[in-house]
Design the sequence.
């Protein structure tokens, strides 16, 4: 019998953010080559911010990602404010957390409905899916719109919002705006609860794998906009110690760098967070997740859609908790006194931890910056997952089935390729 | 009309960018589903459909040309569409990533040999209009859903889209927003920036940072002098113009002029 030779090539990965491709070569029963190729050209943001005043950084780094701009703004603010020892008003801190909740809801609702769900219902897009499943798509679009509305209340618009500044927020909302928003959140809670059970009812492959989950944790409550970096293998460090534990290297087929913890791939994002912080979720969310029948923590990446749904539910409840009893603060921006030094910041972007480091001079200008987005951290893990998942799926499937399975695996990570490629160092740029 | 006419065909392409302008479509919500009933969305990779070489009536292009392969790709796209609409700061001016070209050209200028023409050849992030004919430019970082829907409606009705090039200042006056430049003394770019956002930054009590690019007849020199009066040093004034739309010619010239003063 002649040896079977399969070559799967996906030149443009659809329903991911940014531009990537996938190459897979199988000879007989062996995967000869498997590469998630990221060819989005690097935009070199770390160099772009050099020489800029600290006050400009939130608006500049927001442009790394149109889907998660708040994550970039908050990680940058955490780094700069910790260096300057700025005391942000607690009410304003809470509003920032609500802004971040809005981004989780918007990003996760977009991913579940527009990027991932069509895979499982046999459609190429949410538009096609809407014809046959209007109520499901409309529910998703309502949640997506509410996430955008929260961001708009605090940032004037959902894409590249303009509300956050070093020291706080440019504007705190009026009490009437918050009251109206609380009404919308209450009305959406049944949608979010239903989304959890709906997503868990979609038949998923039983694809358990060994991996390390990495995320943030705080002393009380569930981490979103700040925290200590922890893993399910005992890691527990401050943001400033990140570079002692995590390394990056360049692989030839990608414009994004690969991150490793020790010498191993690791997972960041919704499933890692739920795995690490299940005990910290509000009771309605942990009950809804437990009722799905999934044993949390889960070792199956195909449970990431349900993890995202659970986080939408959590973010809505958290926004409601934080906005209840809101009193508009007199001042929304704390005094800021720049000083020279190095500041470190981290937050839980929708796709996982987003780490920033800024070296600032005495005039408050950036001398050097380093930004490590979640998708680069997941990249090594995605390839490792594809190897294992394809073997479990069966290499004897035809090319269309193999391609479809690979795309599902990749989309489980909600890769944000536009984010991932901005941080190549200048030395690796083409000349 | 006896036969149902063929639905107009629309494509959304992406070059070097943050994907944020494509959200002007994805954030339409139920309107996106309605739009898809009126037009065929044949290529829009982030939303699902992939047919990069399909012939279309309207092609929206996000992002700047930043990679050698991009030039061939944008030419192929141009050949296959009736109307090419560049959306967002990256596609209309090169975007924030064009800042790296400033850094490089300055280093080269400091080394004396470089001629400006040679530097231009090495510019990495360039707008779509530098490579192919663009029928309509929608400025903004990001563009709004209203901008893209208006463009589709106007073009499909055979009318010429109106270029909205008024200043943010006028929008503030219409909305009776208190002037941040006058009352707070912050370096607001509203007097030289194109409207379209809804004057969001001044409505939040902060200075406009120019993300919709230059308005018509922007008096950048006078505004820069006003910033100097607020206490900004020439380098800070230059950086003010060198933001999201740094490579727009009016803003780049202003930045160069004020930076020149820093070296006098």
Sequence:
């Amino acid at each position: 019998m002649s040896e079977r030779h399969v070559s799967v090539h996906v030149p443009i990965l659809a329903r991911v953010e940014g531009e990537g491709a996938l190459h897979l070569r199988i000879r007989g029963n062996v995967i000869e080559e498997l590469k998630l190729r990221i060819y989005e050209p690097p935009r070199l943001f770390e160099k772009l911010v050099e020489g800029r005043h600290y006050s400009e950084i939130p608006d500049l780094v927001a442009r790394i990602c149109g889907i998660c701009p708040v994550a970039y703004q908050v990680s940058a603010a955490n780094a700069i404010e910790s260096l300057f020892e700025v005391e942000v008003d607690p009410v304003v801190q809470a509003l920032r957390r609500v802004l971040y909740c809005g981004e989780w809801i918007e990003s996760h609702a977009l991913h579940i409905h527009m990027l991932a769900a069509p895979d499982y219902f046999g459609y190429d897009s949410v538009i096609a899916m809407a014809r046959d499943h209007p109520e499901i798509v409309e529910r998703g679009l309502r949640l997506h719109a509410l996430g955008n509305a929260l961001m708009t209340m605090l940032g004037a618009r959902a894409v590249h919002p303009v509300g956050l500044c070093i020291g706080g927020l440019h504007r705190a909302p009026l009490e009437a705006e918050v009251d109206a928003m609380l009404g919308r959140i209450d009305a959406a809670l049944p949608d979010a609860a239903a989304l959890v059970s709906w997503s868990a009812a979609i038949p998923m492959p039983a694809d358990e794998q060994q991996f390390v989950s990495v995320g943030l944790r705080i002393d009380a409550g569930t981490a979103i906009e700040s925290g200590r970096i922890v893993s399910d293998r005992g890691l527990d460090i401050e943001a400033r110690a990140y570079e002692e534990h995590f390394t990056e290297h360049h692989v030839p087929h990608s414009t994004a760098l690969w991150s490793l913890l020790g010498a191993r791939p690791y997972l960041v994002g919704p499933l890692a967070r739920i795995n690490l912080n299940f005990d910290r979720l509000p009771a309605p969310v942990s009950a809804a997740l437990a009722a799905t029948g999934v044993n949390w923590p889960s070792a199956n990446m195909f449970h990431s859609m349900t993890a995202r749904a659970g986080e939408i539910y959590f973010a809505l409840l958290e926004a409601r908790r934080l906005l209840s009893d809101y009193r508009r603060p007199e001042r929304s921006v704390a005094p800021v006194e720049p000083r020279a030094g190095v500041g470190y910041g981290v937050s839980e972007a929708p796709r996982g931890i987003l780490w920033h480091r800024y070296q600032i001079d005495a005039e408050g200008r950036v001398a050097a910056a380093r930004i490590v987005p979640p998708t680069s951290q997941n990249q090594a893990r995605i390839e490792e997952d594809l190897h294992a998942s394809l073997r479990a799926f069966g290499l004897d499937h035809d090319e269309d089935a193999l391609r479809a399975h690979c795309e599902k695996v990749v989309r489980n990570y909600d890769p944000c390729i536009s984010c991932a490629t901005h941080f190549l160092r200048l030395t690796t740029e083409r000349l | 009309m006896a036969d149902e006419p063929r639905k107009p065909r629309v494509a959304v392409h992406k070059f070097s960018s943050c994907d944020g302008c494509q959200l002007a479509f994805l954030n339409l919500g139920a309107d996106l589903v309605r739009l898809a009933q009126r037009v065929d969305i044949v290529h829009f990779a982030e939303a699902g459909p992939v047919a990069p070489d399909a012939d279309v009536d309207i092609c929206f292009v996000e992002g700047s040309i930043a990679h050698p392969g991009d030039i061939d790709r944008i030419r192929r796209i141009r050949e296959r569409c009736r109307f090419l609409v560049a959306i967002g700061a990256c596609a209309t001016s090169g975007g924030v990533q064009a800042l790296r070209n400033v850094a490089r050209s300055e280093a080269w200028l400091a080394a004396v040999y470089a001629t400006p023409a040679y530097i231009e050849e090495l510019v990495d992030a360039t707008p779509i209009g530098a490579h192919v004919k663009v029928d309509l430019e929608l400025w903004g970082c990001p563009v709004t859903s209203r901008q893209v829907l208006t463009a589709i409606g106007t073009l499909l009705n055979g009318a010429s889209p109106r270029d909205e090039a008024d200043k943010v200042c006028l929008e503030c006056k219409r909305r009776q927003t208190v002037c941040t430049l006058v009352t707070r003394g912050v370096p607001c770019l509203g007097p030289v920036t194109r409207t379209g956002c809804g004057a969001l930054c001044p409505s939040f009590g902060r200075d406009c940072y120019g993300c919709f690019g230059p308005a018509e007849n922007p008096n950048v020199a006078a505004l820069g002098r006003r910033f100097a009066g607020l206490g900004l040093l020439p380098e800070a004034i230059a950086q003010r113009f060198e933001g999201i739309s740094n490579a727009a010619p009016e803003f780049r010239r202003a930045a160069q002029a004020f930076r020149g003063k820093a070296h006098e």
